[in-house]
Design a protein that fits this description.
Number of strands: 12
Order of helices and strands: HEEEEEHEEEEEEHEHH
Strand content: 15-25%
Shape: globular
Distance between the termini: 30 Å
CATH topology: Lysozyme-like
Number of helices: 5
Largest sheet: 6 strands, mixed
CATH class: Alpha Beta
Length: about 200
């Protein structure tokens, strides 16, 4: 059984490739429990994988003129704590003790502003499409490690914390597979993805 000290160096995961993002800040309430994991999906340009553009976006180094789509997000300053590529490779951009800019306007488990007390994980993929087995395995392992350090009691998609505004990871994401891999209680997951009793 892995220990927190084996998995973490402060808020940095020992198994991730680190690439620090400037798009982050302190958590507003140091005493608020970091008890939510938010799952997102992203690919840049949309539907293209392995381009390095996600890493560039999160570090404010994206060449806005490199692809026509980039003009629609020009100047965007965002980040997530983690990014899992199609092969299950793990990248970290923000210390998990700090606030990443991944959720935007959001509300979940009776609280607003989910950036304040959550860990954001981006999966390389297109909203609504399927994800790779390697990504589920990496995501489950990462979630288990996050729960070694933080009092995680909730895991949700961006679509659940910002309904109507966001739709990722979307219908192609298999929540049942993630729940099976994690072995966490159904109550940790959004109501609409819980298995029937």
């Amino acid at each position: 059984m892995k220990t927190s000290a084996e998995a973490w160096d402060g808020g940095w995961h020992r198994g991730a490739q680190h690439l620090a993002s400037p798009n982050q800040g302190p958590r507003p309430d140091a005493n608020a429990p970091v008890d939510l994991i938010v799952v997102h999906s992203i690919s840049l340009p949309p539907g293209q994988f392995g381009t390095g553009a996600v890493q560039q976006l999160f570090t404010n180094t994206l060449d806005w003129d490199a692809h026509p789509y980039f003009q629609s997000i020009r100047g965007l300053q965002v980040s997530a704590h983690f990014f899992i590529d199609r092969a299950g490779g793990l990248w970290q951009f923000v210390d998990c003790d700090r606030r990443a800019w991944h959720a935007g306007q959001s509300h979940y488990r009776g609280r607003d502003q989910c950036n304040d007390d959550s860990v954001g994980i981006e999966l390389e993929g297109l909203e609504g499409d399927r994800f790779e087995p390697e990504q589920y395995a990496a995501l489950a392992a990462l979630c288990q490690d996050i729960a070694l350090r933080y009092p995680v009691r909730h895991i949700a998609g961006h679509e659940h914390i910002a309904p109507g505004r966001k739709h990722d990871p979307g219908a192609g994401f298999d929540w049942r597979t993630l729940q099976r891999l994690l072995g966490w209680p159904a109550g940790y997951f959004p109501l609409d993805v819980q298995p029937p009793a």
